[in-house]
Amino acid sequence: MSGLLLILWISSTRYEYRWADGVQIKKPIEVSAPKYVEYLMDWIESQLDDESIFPQKLGAPFPSNFKEVVKTIFKRLFRVYAHIYHSHFQKIVSLKEEAHLNTCFKHFILFTCEFGLIDKKELGPLQELIDSIIVPY
């Protein structure tokens, strides 16, 4: 398999992310990180285009599982951030682009925390960074 797998080692904890969309791929499979991102972006696009999930007509109701769908989208997007920080951050620093990544991640994490979109246990790979962003009052 070419490319890095979406596997993170942080301290002694291993985080391994496998892909399953529940439709075409029901059993989670091991894929390279680029393939995971490709699957993810295609899946998110299909979710956004599905009018039964994201209604386009004014006044059309959102489904009862809307928040769960959005939580799954954000959880999976978080995994990409975790992979970038773990496997590619030094390259980003060498390009002097870390401020952009950090700003995007900060907005992402503040939004997810505000609306409870990612369960705390899912944030483990970047918890130290998140703690530096979310400073208690």
Oligomer: single chain
Task: Work out the helicity level.
Answer: 40-55%
At CATH level 3, the topology is Butyryl-CoA Dehydrogenase, subunit A, domain 3
Helix/strand structural class: mainly alpha
Protein name: MOB kinase activator-like 1B
Observed structural traits:
single chain; 137 residues; mainly alpha; two-stranded antiparallel sheet; 6% strand; MOB kinase activator-like 1B
Describe the structure.
The protein is built from four helices and two strands. By secondary structure, it is mainly alpha-helical. It has one domain (about 35-135): Butyryl-CoA Dehydrogenase, subunit A, domain 3 (Up-down Bundle), CATH 1.20.140.30. A two-stranded antiparallel sheet has the order 1-2. Helix 1 packs antiparallel against helix 2 (about 65-95). The longest helix is centred in the middle third of the chain and has 29 residues, at about 65-95. The model is unreliable at about 1-5 and about 5-10 (pLDDT under 50).
